[in-house]
Hints:
There is one protein chain. By secondary structure, the chain is α/β, with parallel strands linked by helices. It has a single domain, classed as Alpha/Beta hydrolase fold, catalytic domain (Rossmann fold, 3-Layer(aba) Sandwich). It is about 45% helix and about 15% strand. It has eleven helices and eight strands. Strands 1-2-4-3-5-6-7-8 form an eight-stranded mixed sheet, with helices on both faces. The longest helix has 18 residues, at about 280-295.
Amino acid sequence: MARARANGVEIEYDIVGDGPETVLMIMGLGGQMTRWPPALTARIAAEGFRVVVYDNRDVGLSTGFDAAGPADIAAVITAMAEGRKPEVPYLLDDMAADAAGLLDALGVERAHLFGVSMGGMIGQMVAANHPEKTLSLVSVMSTTGARAVPPPTPEAQTALMARAPDGAGVEVAADYALKAQIAIQSPGYPLDPVETRARLRADIVRAYRPAGVGRQMAAVIASGDRRERLRTITAPTIVVHGVDDPLVRVEGGRDTAATIAGAELRLVPGMGHDLPAGLFDVFVKAVIDAAERARATA
Length: 298
């Protein structure tokens, strides 16, 4: 692992493979780069790609924004509802600029983007705001910010907002994280609770920054409806979404595909809001197909 200066912040990153084309993997809300299954990144690298994974700002080992204080999610929601500009330290646009800046720091002229959940939103904004850096986009279990998209199920919403009490130890935090994962897992591809808890625990030991997760959530809410800018995306785009996603509902994927010109929608039965090994073929194929479309239009 290494660090790079990008868009004024320090970004922790790692690289798998040495292919001629780069795939930038953008993780979702609160997810560190260690959340990417090694078998998935290895599969993508084996297809001839250089795979770059990284910690988004405010999580993992990248620059934090603790000086901004904890996010007031209720205040952000109220401001948006009243048409006021919320007070947040950054938006999805800034996180997209981090991604583009990381590519610049690594000497990558253009990359294929693969983003999940909030990472899909960031990938969308890279493609919209930095088209010169974008070869293709795969947006997975993500959405557009449109208010008409149904909210999470009550169970998924509770899981999203649940946090271990302040001062709780690693084991308690790992228990909370596991409950959240179980609440949003793919019903057709159930997780192994022992393996999942061990992975989540390792992430907590690496970096535990719940306040950063809150600020990321505030950035998503404050970024609002992004469809106007998503309509400017010209990069070949594939949208992958689970039919059974309880957190970002399938309508979010449908809206993303309907908004981005020429986007292809791939709905996956039995998929929730995670990256089960049983669906690696789906994800790898999406990367390959999007890349092939980009080469065909180059």
